[in-house]
Structure of ATP-binding protein:
Amino acid sequence: MKIMKGIARFLGVDGDRSAPPPRYVGLADGLVITETHAEAWYLLGSSNTDLMSEAARDAEQDQASSALARTLAGYDCHLKILWSPLNAEDYRTEAETLFSAGDYAAWADLRVGRLEELELPTRMLLLGVRISERANQAKARGSRGVQDALGIGSTSVSQKEIARLDALARRLGRQLETTPWKAQPATVELLAWMIAREQRRSTPLPSPDDKGMITGAKLAQLTRGRVLPYPDHVRVLDQRGETVGWSAILTMDGFPEEMESPGPGEWLRSVAEITYVPELMDDEDAGDITALPVNPEPSVRFKVLHKRDALKQIDEVRRLAKEQRQSAAKHSAGETAQEIEETEETMTSLSRDMKREDVTLLEDHPRLIVSSDVSLEDLRSRCDAVIGFYGGVGIEVSVAAEEQRELWLEAQPGDMLRVPDLVHTRTVGAFAGSWFWGGASVGDDTGPVIGYLTGSTPGVVRNDLTGGSERGDATTTAFIGRSGRGKTTAMMLSLLDSGFRGSFVLALDFKGDMGGLVSAGQRYGLNAHLIETGSQFAGVADLFFLLSGESAERAQTEVPAQLGISLPQHLRMRGAETPIQSAVNEIIAEGDPATWKVIERLRQSSDELSRETGDALYELSLTGLGAPFMGKPSGSSLITPTPGIWVIQVPGITLPSPDDSRDDWSVHQRLSVALVHSLLAYGISMAGRKDLRGLRKVVAVPEVHVLTATREGSSFLQYIARVGRALHTALVVDTQDPESLASLTGLVEQMTTVFGFQLTTPEQQDAMAALLDLPKGAHTRQLIQAIGVDVTQEIRHGHCIMRDRRFSSATVQFDVPSLEMLQLLNTTPKADSSGGAGGPVPLAKSEYEEVNA
């Protein structure tokens, strides 16, 4: 027998190399069952590590090391990192549940088309743990011979065994759920997809039976493909025998003695960063070729040693090094190799650390699966890119020669370790330092897609401005950054999504550049209106009209206060507030009240003070700032509390600072304050009306520093922010000054999402870092400085740092789904033939591609 084993070992077919392929007998949620054993499979969550502070990273890595040492000690584990192509069509189906207003189907189609262009893959982390050896494994191994392809066993699985295995998997799952990986049992559909994808199965995945199992013929469908091994790759064939894909398994042969994390030590997280330049086709221009992601898929089988076994192994290595040192000392040279001395010292130190801390060793067998569906040459180009990438950080990677079949089978779920030669022994802390679960992750789990991640891992980003109330969370979102970096366009895209969700969207446009939001909304069938200041929009901000329903009683006091603000100082000093209140009461008593009627009543009064007051207000009502809130309507659209988008443009207003005396206000300042008073009162009444509690509401304030400069504006913002959750009202602010925003404690406390665009001064950068929950310092300042420019230092519109409701931060690119939409939302003014402000500036295709780069 020993002679036969020796011959087999010499021929390279000893031990597990010659084991037959796995024979699946059943799949269930969290379980893969073969004839010989059962594995529990878990879907691991990702951590957002790109912008994580050093202290937070260290703490999470320690938690992962502890989980490896305590929870997984003694288990045979299989870690797989897979890339799932984004199925853009799913978003079209999801739109039926997300949106309800306008031509939302066309809006969803627009986004689907853009997602198909982006081709963003989704990273999936799966961990398999062997939890049980089945009773009939010896018989099964003895009765089966070597097979060339995966087969299906006929052994059935009893319900009693399923229940036992499910209990074991759930028990282990509860422990893994509390780790940084937040493990959840993989669904049976996910497990079926994982098994079928290795053979490029194009048939629909089978559905589980009424017991949640996939067995028998349904399971056979997953493994009926053909895979042909070659010396340096395997070929996947379809049902007609044609090659549909090429895959190569690469082995990681050597690692440096020390690796830094963050940095090169994150060798599992960094697989998403590997790119290559494909070969030019005959009809392609060299200028059209860009670097494409390789997306190799790591498959790592590992086993965490019990501390007792690890200490024994360390002691053996230390003792061997000591014997070598002593032997060398007896020779004439009397010198010991430096490596031997270092090994002895290292083993002694490691043994001491293991006895003091929660540290142990693990043995891992890392493989990298590189695939291509283009050509064999393309596969080899991808492999060269992977080898070169890891070679740059000191990791030796090579294409496994003559063992592609064995390594390909080894990577299958439910298989076993077949090529044990290339084993690496390291501490659990070193393996955790690979950060296989790290990367970029930010945004809501569901909701409208707004863009994509630009960090170390790809993916789409979702954000729902109106989702806070449904979660019982805060409802304030802030867009912060310098002018011209795309924050207003980004906000308008999010407001469009809110409009399609059936929300009432009120945008107070103090800069006058949000008219494109209305154009875009009307283009896709939304109830969208643009209201401007001026005589043509007289009466649109009349508080008698705005404060309707249960808020109507407030008009009896709000209108006199508003007119009092507009009055010249000398009339107010003579007591003009009294006749104004009297006229308001009389107009209300007559029915169908309006502010212009109050002014007419004052002008027709026999009292001299009343007439002077009415005449003064009448003249002011003819101005561009006075007409909207106290002018006589001329048939223009009025704001109504119905789903839709209402953009109120009030450019050119000048609000006094809180320190300015009211006696010193100019006419322009008085009318500006009075007009804003209308808008704020309407916003508060809309948010608080009981009959509108079920309506999604969004109040958007671009250039919010216009309001934060006044006491009334600051109070309004903090009120909406604090009561937004209860009143189903979201507040969206846009500012260039995070310092002044940070002073509004009530507003900052209620921020659920923050989008940080480029800022250039250290004070503003530090204020933004606090709002983004990033550590203050030179590194963060440099990050905020660089976020708005590309590698050529040109402006990169729409690129920002997003902090989500979970206080995770990552770099994000807002994505405009089409050139037409970018033109509609363009905020750059253009001089028309008459010398006034025209429509949006048409953008060339190259400019659109630059924005969405």
